């Protein structure tokens, strides 16, 4: 079996299925996995420059701007003028956003518990190590560009 099929296709297929199931469970809350990733990251930070948020969530600026527009309309986040750089904004989660993240965190953990059901902890640890190694190798390749 080719590496493309063994790693590439399998990873893409798994990622799409995980996104689909998480989106299914998040639908009643009117957010997507992309929005969840931003909200969860903001919940772990206080005010964060949009560029730094883009890096932490691994989203390009255009995609992040669209996500922020949507969740700002729902009053889950707010943009604050950056006092050290008039051209940029600091992003912070609102009380409403914090409440949503706190409500959903346990729920999302339950979903992932179901996803890994029946898989031994040792295998999950190896899986995590392999994922980390793949990500590191990809980062090195991107740095070479």
UniProtKB/TrEMBL annotation:
The keyword Transcription regulation applies. Keywords: DNA-binding, Transcription, Transcription regulation. InterPro entries: HTH_MarR-typ (IPR000835), MarR/SlyA-like (IPR039422), WH-like_DNA-bd_sf (IPR036388), WH_DNA-bd_sf (IPR036390). It comes from the Bacteria. One of its GO terms (molecular function) is DNA-binding transcription factor activity. The keyword Phosphoprotein does not apply. GO terms for biological process: response to stress. Residues 1-136 form the HTH marR-type domain. This is MarR family transcriptional regulator.
């Amino acid at each position: 079996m080719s590496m493309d099929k063994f790693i590439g296709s399998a990873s893409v297929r798994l990622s799409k299925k995980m996104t689909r199931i998480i989106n299914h469970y998040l639908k009643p809350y009117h957010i997507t996995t992309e929005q969840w990733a931003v909200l969860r990251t903001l919940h772990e930070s206080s005010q964060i420059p949009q560029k730094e948020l883009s890096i932490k969530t691994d989203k390009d600026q255009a995609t992040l701007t669209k996500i922020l527009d949507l969740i700002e309309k729902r009053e889950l986040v707010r943009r604050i003028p950056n006092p050290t750089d008039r051209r940029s904004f600091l992003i912070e989660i609102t009380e409403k956003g914090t409440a949503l993240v706190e409500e959903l965190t346990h729920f999302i953990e339950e979903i992932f518990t179901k996803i890994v059901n029946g898989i031994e902890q040792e295998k999950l640890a190896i899986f995590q190590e392999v994922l980390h190694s793949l990500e590191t190798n990809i980062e090195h390749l991107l740095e070479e560009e």
